[in-house]
Structures are given as C-alpha cells and as structure tokens.
Amino acid sequence: MAVVGQGTPMRGTTGAVHTAMVPHPREEQFTVLVVDDHPLLREAIAARLRSMGAGTVHEAASVAEARARAQAYGPCDLAILDLGLPDGSGLDLVTELRQLGWNRLVVLASSDDPYAVRSAFQAGAQAYLLKSASPAVVTDGVKRVLDGGVYADPTVAPLLATGTRVPGTDNTPRELSAREVEVLQLVADGQSNKEIGEALSLSALTVKSHLSRIGRKLGTGDRAQMVALAMRAGVIR
Question: By its UniProt entry, which InterPro entries does this protein fall under (predicted)?
Fold first, then answer.
C-alpha cells in the first residue's frame, strides 16, 4: 500500500527537484475506516478527519460491520477503532486488520489501564488515544500515524513507558520482556507449562526457562506470588 503523502518528485530539465511540486502529506486525500458503536462520537471523528483531508470515510458500529467494510473496500490508509464493541473484541479486530494489510491503526478507548494500552500496541496498533482526549490530541495522533509514526495519548504515555516494570519482593522495579509478560498472563489464566507452550508455540522446557528468569527478576519462584506481583503492577490482568 502506498504511503500517504509520499509522492514522486518532479524534476526539471536541470535535474533539480521542484519542491513546490512535491505534495504535502495533508494535501493528499486519504481513506479512513471509523469503528465505534456510538453514532455521535463516530460522526464527530469522521467530521474531524474530513477537515484533515480525508476523502472517503467508511463507518462501522460493530466488529461484523467492520469486517464487512474491510472486505468490501480493502485496506484504507487509516483505521480508528473502539475497543469496546458490542459483538466482539476491538483488540481482535486490530489483529485481523493488521494481518489483512492495514498498516495504520489507531485505537480510541475509554480505558487508561496499562494492560489495555500495551495490549493494543502488541496487537498492531500505531496509536492509542483516549475518548476523553482533546480534539488537538486526536489531530496530533492521527497526523503522527499518517506520517508513519506511533503515538500514545499524553495521559497514557507514562503508563506505556513503565508498563512492563514489576516491583520484585525487594520492591526494586524489574523489567519483564514481552514474552515473559505473555507467559505470566497465561499462568494467571491457570494454564500449565505444557498448555502455555502450545499457546505460544514453545516447548515446555522453554516455558520453564522463562518462568525461572521471571522468578530471578522478581525474587520468588512461587507462581502465585509472581502473578500477584505482576497484577499489582498492572502488567497483567
């Protein structure tokens, strides 16, 4: 998919680039899919996007509608998705669209929970915005993503930065890797080493090694205590 705002520079007979003829990203129209089950919010987002240069804005109020729009229109330049949809998980929809070639995904959510923020980025989102955000913040986030960057609402940015830090038994913060967080979440869900390995395509021995490293970092080899420490830090749910 072509990157929004990247045109081919025109050259004169001397070979110099005429910068006036190179389109600015905001001067090119872009296509958008907005997924939210609240009509007024969805319409407000669509109106703001049109004011920013959106040429076509497709709307959906559910996961099912979003899937239908995605199938009908193919990857748009941008998608803005609510996480709390009536018929399914917005996170699952982010993952699906990402796999279908949608490269610019913005999550618009009401939760500033560290787990939700981190999960959105892990699913493939490029931005996480709160529904309580000001129009200026929404505009900044959308522009950043259209330009190929990532963005976190200023309110949740500190949570994202510290989202994988868990105070160990000595209260010293320890940084857990993304894989270690995944393993701990599955432990919290009550899965055995074998089941965790099957879910993550790992051997039971590798899962055991991950748990050993987590135990060393947190200062405990007790699975229940590791989970409790991670939950209190907001790293897992």
Answer: CheY-like_superfamily, NreC/VraR/RcsB-like_REC, Sig_transdc_resp-reg_C-effctor, Sig_transdc_resp-reg_receiver, Tscrpt_reg_LuxR_C, WalR-like, WH-like_DNA-bd_sf
Q: What per-residue string of b and e applies to 162-176 under the rule 16 or more CB within 10 Å gives b?
A: ebbebebeeeeebeb
How many Cα atoms are found within 13 Å in the side-chain-facing hemisphere of 104? 24
pLDDT tens, position by position, 94-143: 999 999 999 999 999 988 877 788 788 878 898 999 999 999 999 999 99
Contact 122, 179 (CB under 8 A): no
Which long-range contacts (C-beta less than 8 Å, at least 24 apart) are formed by 125-130?
A: 125/94, 126/150, 126/151, 127/151, 127/152, 128/152, 128/153, 128/156, 128/160, 129/153, 130/155, 130/156
C-alpha distances (whole Å) from 78 to each of 15, 72, 103, 153, 160 are 34, 15, 8, 17, 22
Distance of CA 159 to the CA centre of its chain: 14
SS3 113: coil
State the DSSP code for 11. Answer: B
25-38 residue pLDDT tens: 444 589 999 999 99
210-224: b (≥16 Cβ within 10 Å) or e: bbeebbebbbbeeee
